Each structure stands twice: as structure tokens, then as C-alpha cells.
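Below is how a single chain appears once it has passed through the pipeline. First comes the sequence as given, then the structure the pipeline wrote out for it. We keep one example in the README because the format questions we get most often are answered faster by looking than by reading.
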Amino acid sequence: MSNFNDCIILFGGSSEERLVSVASAQNLSIALPEATLWFWSKTDKIYEVSHEELSKHKNAFMDGFNPDSKAKFSSLESSLESMKDKLIIIGLHGTEGEDGKLQAIFEAHQIKYTGSDSKASHLAFDKRATKRLAQTNGLSVVTDFALNDFQETEINELQAFFKTHEKIVLKPLANGSSVGLFIVSSKDELSQAIATIKGKGIIPYMAEPFIAGREITVGVWQKNYHKTIALPCSEVRVLQGGQFDYQGKYLGKGIQELTPAPLTGDESKACQELALKLHFMIGCKGYSRTDMILSDKGPVILEINTLPGLTKASFIPQQLLAIKTDLRAFFSAQILLK
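Resulting structure:
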């Protein structure tokens, strides 16, 4: 693999994070103009789109992308043969990209791709499994409570969990971009959250106590076979009345992001070391990003992302800028790893 001419940026998908994927692809398209762009639609069709067409798409975080051209392939499966001898830059987020199934397909067909392998991706996508492994290895994690069916027994247990902690966070067991996130501080808010989750269709959730502290996220970048570094820390500050959900994360509503985070040297070192430890513990490759709470007792793990957002608003690009580098240099390193 010699240059970006031999790369395909695969983006889209059918997960709840497909809009973020399109925004990431727009940013990648600017950084890697030689790469081919393949859009994976909700109907499984693959479209080859031009950089110009992708760049003209507006409001990517809110409006779906619909290519003008006819589909190049009727399904992902039918496109696999054409992916051989290429490097797939996975610009997907959410289920299709991060749960390890796509990576397993590529591995079975000997297709090269960026990021972590199927085993690490599958483990990292399960937030509870990640935390159990981290806890077993002596890392600080937030305790949690699992919800699988939201029937009466579970709801009663959840209400008891809420009474114990007074303020809790409800989030999907396997999802990202703060989709489906609820911060609950009253009985009415808890009832409303339960009703909303059940109304959208039951998926596994987890409840965590709300941990007081500063919300920090740290990217990890494997620069070559011998050197993996932690990028500068970023801090998320929720403004009064705001919430770090999808609206806050990508539309800038009610939140403030600070990169590098205004931390002491010791605080930065502790957060970066935690991100590196979890990256290696999970078995990640290429890059990752770990979210944590910096409490008065030190950083506490929330989750790790194996395919973090790469939009203009995302943390990895912010952190690369802080060390005076960019996505092109970032992915040049990924190419050399393949």
C-alpha cells in the first residue's frame, strides 16, 4: 500500500450514527482527496460518489445523504471482490463499523482496513464487557446496572438503583455519539426516559451513577509499529441547561469543548496513561478514544471508542491540531501499518 490512491473511504451505513459517518467522510475527503468514496446506503447498496458531490451535501448531522448516481454494487457482499488490493478506511460509526462484524467480513476475505480488528472492536463496543475487563485489571470504572427487557422486575430494580444514587445516566449498552442518552435526576425524568426507550423499541441499556467531576476524552494514535502515543486531553463542559447528547456534541448546543483541556501536568498524565492502558488492554490497533470522568480521586473510565468521530467538530481532529498535525498525517501512519 503506497498512497491514498489505493484507498477507499467507506461511510454511511444504517446505524443511528450514519449521519455522523457522512460528516466524518466529508472531513476525510478534504484531507485525502485521492481516495475513492464509497457510500453504504441503508438498503445495503454501495454507491461511488465524487468528492464534489459529497462536499455539496449540507447539514450532514441532520439530513440524510442521497447520492445522485446509480448504485455501483447491489450489496456490501457483492462489492468485496473489488475491495481486494485496496485499503478500506472505515469511516463508519455505530453498529456496522464498531461492533466487529464488518472487520470479521474483511478478515475472512483478506481485505485490508484501518483501525482495530474484529475481536477488539466487538469487545470495546460492549460497554459493560469493557468495564469488567478494565476493573479486573485494576483500572477505575463507573459501576453500572444492566437493563435488557424493561419489564416490571427490571424497572423496579432500576427505581431502587436510582433511589440509591439520586442522579443516574441511562445509555445504550452498544451505541455511541450520545444517541439515546438520558441524565435522570427526578422520578418524573426516570419515568419519561423509560417511556421513551420503550416507545422506540427495547434495546439493551445500562444505568450508571452520575459521577461528579470533569468530563475528559483522550485519543490514542499508533504512529508506527513501535510507537503509540496519547493525544492531548479534551474537556467537555456542559453549560447551564445543556446536555452532552447528540445536539450538544455535533450542533454545539449547550456545551463547550476545550482542547487541550486546562489540566495540571499530573492530571493530564493520569488521563493519558489511562487511555493508553485501556487501548492496549482491549487490543486496539491504529487509534481509539477513551471517555472518562476526572473525579477528585482521579480519572474513571466511561467507555472506549474504536472508530471515534473524525468530523470537523470531533475530538481526534481537535487533538491532532493541538500537536500541529492533521488527518492526512494521521492516516499516512495507518497506511504504513498495513
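The radius of gyration is 20 Å.

See the next section for the split statistics.
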